Amino acid sequence: MRVAKWITINRVALLALGLGCGGQSSYGASLTGPTAATSAPGVDSMRAPEVSGFVNTPPVVYALSSDATGVSEVVNNIPNLTVVSKDRQVLKAEYQAGFIQGHMQGKSIRDARDNAWVGLLYDGSEMPVDQVVVVNSIVNQNFNFFLHYLRTAPDRPAARGLTRLLFRMLGIYHGATRAHPANLDFSGRFLPDASYFRPAELVTGYGTPALTFMDVYFTNAVEDVTDVYWNLPAPAATEAAAATTLTAARAAPAHRIPRNPFWRNVNPLRCSAFLKRAKNGDLILAHNSWFFFMSQTMSMTIDVNGDRVSMNTLSPGLIGSLTDFGFNNKGLMFNETTNAYGYTEAKADGIFIFWRAALAEELAGSLDEFFHDISIDNTGTYMNAYMVADANSGEMGLVDMSYKSFVFFRSNGGPYTVTTLPPGQAADYDTTMVTPDYILGFNYPPSALVQSELQAGPPDWVDRVTELGLLVPDVEDVASAKAVITNTDPQPRGAIYSRFDLADENGIPIGPHPEYGTAPFGAIDAKVVTATMVRQANRLSGTIDLASPASSFWMRWGTPYYEGKPFIWSESAFASWPHPGVPNVLGGTFTRLKLHLK
């Protein structure tokens, strides 16, 4: 009850100040927030004078034509990209949007590939070749299944939306590797399947100078691949799978479990989030992402033929968010936290969630459509509890999932209606997590059915659960939402926004799960948006305009501050770990990002 007592004493002052961090740590750490390089409009006033000088670059414009343009900038360490693409052939518009994105993100996509590999496998030693072979097998198997689905799916609207996303992914790859777009058939008769690519383009690698199409695919699918990889049945089976890959000729040694068990332990134990209905009727959505500190988290707005989404993305090179925070111009707001599980049936033969989530978040126009798009398939991978709200109607809901069931909650401020898929299953849920006024996310499934199917034990990170339950009911505006989602308890184990790299003076881990040891892992960003902000953004025409004051969500890049500092690679025990494209100092400040649209 230590944490509950601390919150009772301090939450009023915390919310009144609007600070993401407050108080004094038990080992002398000043928990004030980071400082901005300047006090520019739209920048939060949190300060930490020990670390300053964030990366800021002016907007850069790249245009394929008057109907296909991108704007890229960095604001307080946050890469911020806007792409608008229009064409009467929607597949061409998607391809052009991807090409602009790939061109403007360039080498950072290759960095994202390598950083994804490090997060999955690395322990400070040489990357094992055999793991690369096994992952090659997984991504190629999934890609071929995905193409089969596009050709045969009875749900043609979903297949058309997914085909759009595939052409955007191809555009990202070409934009990063070619000087000019390819001359393709955009009529719908052509699909860029395995026969379209050279064999070398269908192999994913680590640390190689060339970027392949399958590198881009892997970077998008890394969360799904992680679950499939960690749930492979036995070494013999993985060796057989590896033998089917295009890289089998590399004569890889027998499969061995990666030497990074930390990832397996904490993989489902990350992200904090909430959705709150304020007393004035506004909806407030907040989220922070937990990942290895080589993450390149950023902001991206994509507008293709008037279908627009603004989202936090885990890295460059993505067709979707992967952190699953943002909003679209139909009025839908979304976030999620990943469900912890003791059991799943992960598989590569299916539509990975990265495809389904991008489809729902970018193209769905209602809560019903969002639920439909998320549930068109199930691979038992990256199973999340998605909070979703309609900024126009005020309705809010949640989609919970296991490897075989979906549960859909929705409310207009009163009791929730609950729908299960398959139908007719248990509708019980945790009423402390899902209430008429708010929904909490802390990596535990609210649905009793999902809890049972995933064999999810009680949340073992109880301090964080307690803090969210005490603080979120008092959230009424952006300032209090920012304070809660970046709340850094003096004891790292209890923080909503914390780090796993911390140790005491004797080297004993003191992070949220000290039993797993230390690692460069923890909260890497924080975001807040409201329904009012979404409605304002969605009045825009979707035309590039650098002078427009129109803004997206609030975002803070970087880790929590302890002892007055964020995580700093060169001063850490992990200084030798590769982290290409990631700054040495992982500090940031809340900033309202521009859309560059009028």
Helices, strands, pairings?
Blueprint (H helix, E strand, L loop, with lengths): L1 H16 L39 E9 L2 E8 L2 E8 L4 H16 L1 H15 L7 H24 L3 H22 L35 H18 L4 H9 L17 H6 L5 E6 L5 E6 L1 E3 L5 E7 L2 E7 L8 E7 L3 E7 L14 H11 L3 H8 L9 E7 L5 E6 L4 E6 L5 E5 L16 E4 L6 H7 L7 H10 L6 H8 L35 E3 L1 E6 H7 L13 E7 L33 E4 L4
Parallel strand pairs: 3-7
Antiparallel strand pairs: 1-2, 2-3, 4-5, 4-15, 5-17, 6-16, 7-8, 8-9, 9-10, 10-11, 11-12, 12-13, 13-14, 17-18, 18-19
Helix pairs in contact: 1-12, 1-13, 2-5, 3-6, 4-6, 4-7, 5-9, 9-10
How would you describe this structure to a colleague?
The chain is of the alpha+beta class and 598 residues long. Helices cover 30% and strands 19% of the residues. The protein has 14 helices and 19 strands. The protein has an eleven-stranded mixed β-sheet with strand order 1-2-3-7-8-9-10-11-12-13-14, covered by helices on one side. A six-stranded antiparallel β-sheet has the order 15-4-5-17-18-19. It has a two-stranded antiparallel sheet with strand order 6-16. The protein starts with a helix and ends with a strand. Mean pLDDT is 86; it is low at 1-51 and 234-259.
Supply Rg. Answer: 22 Å
Distance between the ends: 50 Å
Structural class: alpha+beta
In DSSP terms (H or I, runs of 4 or more residues), the helix count works out at 14
Largest sheet: 11 strands, mixed
Overall geometry comes to globular
Q: Give the strand order of the largest sheet, numbering strands 1, 2, ... along the chain.
A: 1-2-3-7-8-9-10-11-12-13-14
How much beta, percentage-wise? 15-25%
- State the assembly state of the protein chains: single chain
Unreliable parts:
1-51, 234-259
Helix content: 25-40%
Mean pLDDT: 86
| Strand segment tally | 19
